Amino acid sequence: MPVIIIVGAQWGDEGKGKIVDMLGEKSDMIIRFSGGDNAGHTVINDLGTFKLHLIPSGIFHKNTKCVIGNGVVINPEILIAEKKSLNDWGITTDNLIVSDKAHLVMPYHLLLDKLEEKARGKKSVGTTLRGIGPAFVDKVARVGIRAGDLQDLEGLKERLELVVKQKNCMIVGMYGATPVSFEELYDKCVQWAQVICPMIRETTIMADEVIKNGGNVLLEGAQGALLDPDFGTYPYTTSSSPLAAGACLGSGIAPTRVDQVVGIFKVYCTRVGSGPFPTELFDEIGDIIRDKAQEYGTTTGRPRRIGWFDGVAAAHSARVNGMTSAILTRLDILDILPKIRICTAYDLDGKVLHRFLSDVASLEKIKPIYEEFDGWLSDTTKITTYEDLPQKARIFIERLQDIIGCSISMACVGPSRAQAIKKDKKFF
Ligand code: IMP
């Protein structure tokens, strides 16, 4: 398993944390490559239940180097709190490395995220309010502050002063809000530097050496393909690419070094925040799934919107990611449903379409065309082999495999590491 990219294949929250935790055991290095603390990964293992936002889910394997890559934006307060809480549990973070090129989410980014969302009114994106969009805006506008800048506090002073002036023009001039204080911010940087600087490294050479020595590298995605700013439901998207291509940019590992791209799909869909969701369920089935699966945001606590598996979106996601295999999560949630649906096409004004649409107006208009399956109505949570799954569950999985268009290597039937049924034995 040399270089593997793990990507979310839907609108995020597919259960990537569990898969990274499982594969992490065999990895020499894990690199988070996009997003920030808008992501939330729940990891349940022998040590307990952990909700991580920034630190890679592989942190529990102490011999695995865990890198927060250059493509991530880091809120230093969150990173420091997350590190401390793991340490308080007796979990070492000596294996945690921060890329010198990762940008920082500053307090003015959080404030601007809130002010911008409010200004959008009914058209708000429903962001996590973690300052992610404004931080990526600054990265591209070349006014961002990077982790590496904390290593030169004198140099940072001059740059930060200028940026704060600029931000206050917006905060006060556009939104009439209270300006941020440069002095308070600079003091914070000095405090952050003490904890974060010892973890900062140039990480691309380190990754290259692991690969050259035949080591295993896992690139850990955040969010999902349908939140990609280019290939998702723009403008209802996040601000960095959750795709496999984003993994290369966000880690400094070139595409030619990557061996596998594994897409993680829930067997139904969820979405948090605003934006089109073609298969959304507004009836009691949605409520049943939400309650059984406890579909509430790890980061925001918001109830997630629930829908049937969208096969059109799934095929799009598999294609733009170049998936070599897929993993299904939360199969057990469907154990109690007598009928299960998969959307296999869209009806747009009477025309049947088999491709995902890039414009939100059309996506909001389409009617999903479904295939219906009999539910298996039995408990799958203790099943350990594919052959032992009920035949109706296998029929459903085989159909998902056809639709996604690549081999399904595993189906998860519960949150623990053991509740994972391997299908394609070549993968592990
Ligand atoms: P932002 O990334 O906080 O700017 O939010 C932009 C959109 O992406 C919103 O609809 C969020 O709900 C969604 N989003 C961001 N992170 C996640 C995630 O980890 N899981 C699911 N949705 C997310």
List keywords for this structure.
12 helices; 32% helix; ten-stranded mixed β-sheet; 428 residues; binds inosinic acid; alpha/beta; globular; four-stranded mixed β-sheet
In words, what does this structure look like?
With 428 residues, the protein is α/β, with parallel strands linked by helices. α5 (153-174) crosses α6. A ten-stranded mixed beta sheet has the order 9-7-5-2-10-1-11-15-19-20, sandwiched between helices. Strands 14, 16, 17 and 18 form a four-stranded mixed beta sheet that branches. A two-stranded antiparallel ribbon has the order 3-4. The chain is 32% helix and 21% strand. Inosinic acid is lined by residues 11-13, 38-40, 125-128, 130, 132-133, 222-223, 227, 236, 238-239, 272-273.
In short:
The chain has 428 residues and is α/β, with parallel strands linked by helices. 32% of the residues lie in helices and 21% in strands.
Furnish the topology, listing elements before pairings.
Blueprint: E1 3-8, H1 16-24, E2 29-32, E3 41-45, E4 48-52, E5 65-68, E6 73-74, H2 76-88, E7 96-99, E8 103-104, H3 107-120, H4 132-140, H5 153-174, H6 182-196, E9 200-201, H7 204-212, E10 217-220, H8 244-249, E11 260-266, E12 269-271, H9 284-293, E13 305-307, E14 309-310, H10 311-321, E15 325-329, E16 339-348, E17 351-353, H11 360-365, E18 367-374, H12 391-404, E19 407-412, E20 420-422
Parallel strand pairs: 1-10, 1-11, 2-5, 2-10, 5-7, 6-8, 7-9, 11-15, 14-16, 15-19
Antiparallel strand pairs: 3-4, 12-13, 16-17, 16-18, 19-20
This protein binds inosinic acid.
